[in-house]
Automatic annotation (TrEMBL):
Similarity remark: Belongs to the peptidase M14 family.
Annotated source species: Steatornis caripensis
A GO MF term: zinc ion binding
Positions of the catalytic residues: E278
Residues annotated as transmembrane: none
Domain of life where this protein originates: Eukaryota
Entry keyword Glycoprotein: yes
Pfam families found in the cross-reference section: CarboxypepD_reg, Peptidase_M14
Encoding gene per record: Cpm
Peptidase M14 domain segment(s): 18-308
InterPro entries per UniProt: CarboxyPept-like_regulatory, CARBOXYPEPT_ZN_1, CPM_N, Peptidase_M14, Peptidase_M14_domain
Name of the molecule in the record: CBPM Carboxypeptidase
């Protein structure tokens, strides 16, 4: 009815700096969607243990479905229910994006060229269970089953025996169904941008107290992009005298080892670069501080989204111009333990810093195609460098392929301990391992 829609639109118009509980959060998101139906798509990706919807608002010129060439980006907040700042600033980010569209040229171009998914809360039950806000720790950190959702994902380094929770499963399905390229998850309790890996072994250099991914340079750039655009994170002062983070960033493993984390899962199995943003020393600060948190993070949130346009993207097609799904496309010298593959549209997206790279496209059973690309910084143009591959001798759709959710790095560690191979052989073994599994 008209009155109902009007109420929703008014709810969308009046976003205040308060904490929004489940019903208010849902009403706000529905109001935004009612007010901006052409720019937003609202859906629930699943339900929490207590049956609350896990809402995601998608924003962009084509909000309802993936469009070839337009990268997918996501923000997830409040996976620890008592870490609340991210939950609220994502609502203000939504408000800022929809009200700036067609008014602010930068935001207009960002939304025209990016599909942005925003999940204000991954753990609504934990948030509702936190009756007394506290700067430090409450049981609301966990979901209703008492599980820490950021220890609940399959782990690339060791067997994670935690039983997968409905909230975790919903996010895993979501990652599988979208071609996410870049992501961040928002936490509280510190002030730092933390990047992959959170776990590690000798293959990733954990013996030296740092767990290095093949894309370590990109991750450092991503973390610094957030930190240096934040009001104070870049100063690296931390929250107490014991902890300082130079330039406001840290390798996750260097800070503390973590098994079953969401950012490692995104990177290894989701082909999505994710960092963890710790946004407040106090986990659940008083509501009167929320406006300052929004001001401190606003520029950083936008600048970080722009980084989804780093690097190179394109399509892999056969001789008839049909897309080839599951072709492996990676930059030489930075193989992923679960090789990065094209999606159902034959698309690939590789986040790479400006420079010269050799890109290797492989359709199993056929000769690889190698091409050298010179990658500029295209984030200001809102489009990564475009480079397509056409396999003239291929006229078949490649077979489905996926990595098992086993600790893939365990196999590499055993192999490297046995023969101490070079990185080149290591990369080859990774690909063979995945194909034969």
């Amino acid at each position: 009815d008209v009155v109902g829609i009007l109420c929703l639109v008014l709810a969308a118009a009046a976003l205040d700096f308060q904490y929004h509980h489940a019903e208010e959060l849902e009403a706000y998101l529905k109001g935004v969607h009612a007010a901006y139906p052409y720019l937003t798509h609202l859906h629930s990706i699943g339900r929490s243990v207590e049956g609350r919807d896990l809402w995601v608002l998608v924003l962009g010129r084509f909000p309802n479905h993936h469009k070839i060439g337009i990268p997918e980006f996501k923000y997830v907040a409040n996976m620890h229910g008592d870490e609340t700042v991210g939950r609220e600033i994502l609502l203000h980010l939504i408000d800022f994006l929809v009200t700036s569209y067609r008014r602010d040229p930068v935001i207009t171009r960002l939304l025209n060229n990016t599909r942005i998914h925003i999940m204000p809360t991954m753990n609504p039950d934990g948030f509702e269970a936190t009756k007394v806000p506290d700067c430090y720790y409450t049981r609301g950190r966990y979901n209703k089953n008492g599980e820490d959702l950021n220890r609940n994902f399959p782990d690339a380094f060791e067997n994670n025996n935690a039983s997968i929770q409905p909230e975790t499963q919903a996010v895993m399905n979501w990652i599988k169904n979208e071609t996410f390229v870049l992501s961040a998850n928002l936490h509280g309790g510190a002030l730092v941008a933390s990047y992959t890996f959170d776990n590690g072994n000798s293959v990733t250099g954990s013996l030296k107290g740092y767990s290095r991914s093949p894309d370590d340079d990109v991750f450092i750039h991503l973390a610094k992009t957030y930190s240096f655009n934040h009001a104070s994170m870049y100063k690296g002062t931390g929250c107490d005298n014991r902890q300082t983070f130079p330039e406001g960033i840290t390798n996750g493993y260097s800070w503390y080892q973590l098994e079953g984390g969401m950012q490692d899962y995104n990177y290894v199995w989701g082909q999505c670069f994710e960092i963890t943003l710790e946004l407040s020393c106090c986990k659940y600060p008083p509501a009167d501080q929320l406006e300052k948190f929004w001001r401190d993070n606003k520029v950083a949130l936008i600048e970080y989204i722009k980084q989804v346009h780093l690097g190179v993207k394109g399509q892999v097609t056969d001789k008839n111009g049909n897309p080839i799904p599951n072709a492996i496309v990676e930059a030489k010298g930075r193989p992923h333990v679960c090789p990065y593959r094209t999606n159902e549209h034959g698309e690939y997206f590789l986040l790479l810093l400006p420079g010269t790279y050799v890109i290797n496209a492989t359709v199993p059973g056929f000769k690889s195609m190698l091409t050298t690309v010179e990658i500029p910084d295209n984030t200001g143009n809102f489009s990564a460098l475009k480079h397509d591959f056409s396999f003239s001798e291929v006229s078949i759709r490649s077979m489905a392929a996926s990595c098992l959710k086993t600790p893939l790095y365990q196999e590499l560690e055993r192999a490297s301990a046995a023969v101490k191979p070079t990185l080149h052989i290591l990369a080859l073994m990774t690909v063979i391992l995945v194909i034969f599994k």
